[in-house]
Amino acid sequence: MGQKIFEPGDLQSSETFWNVLKLSPRDKLDKFAEMWFHVFLWAFSSYLFVHLVASLVAFISLRKHKIARFAPILLVISGVVTPLTMSLITSSAIAGVFRAASIGMSPLNAFLFGTGQTLVNLIFSYTRILATL
């Protein structure tokens, strides 16, 4: 009927974590798996970086507290679990739209979409917490 969105061999062996973070592929990403992989890795790594910095600040601030010194562990766990669920879905949606429109995505666009997800999540997190006080 229609063209398959995902083929099992779409990701090349040269698509490693470090190649994605270096923005090394200079050609456009035209397959769903390539686009999804690049956007997801940027979202995951930027989200994890933000949570590692936050947990480091929390650990330094709470190091003398008897119980709260273990709170940064929850921040790191949250920094892994949230992107595995949220970024997995949104990266799939972004890659699906680009693939359905037959538009190639550059690695720079994947970087902007991935880090943009983290930025939007941070903005919503900070604005919602003030409403609960």
UniProtKB/TrEMBL annotation:
Q: Which GO terms describe its cellular component?
A: membrane
Q: What is its main location?
A: membrane
Membrane-spanning ranges: 35-61, 73-98, 110-131
Q: How does it sit in the membrane?
A: Multi-pass membrane protein
Identify the Pfam families for this entry. Tmemb_170
Q: Does Membrane show up as a keyword for this record? A: yes
Query: Where can this protein be found?
Result: Membrane
Keywords for this protein:
Membrane, Transmembrane, Transmembrane helix
What family does the entry list? Belongs to the TMEM170 family.
Kindly give the PANTHER family that the UniProt entry links to this protein.
Answer: SD17342P
Q: What is this protein called?
A: Transmembrane protein 170A
Give the organism, scientific name: Tetranychus urticae
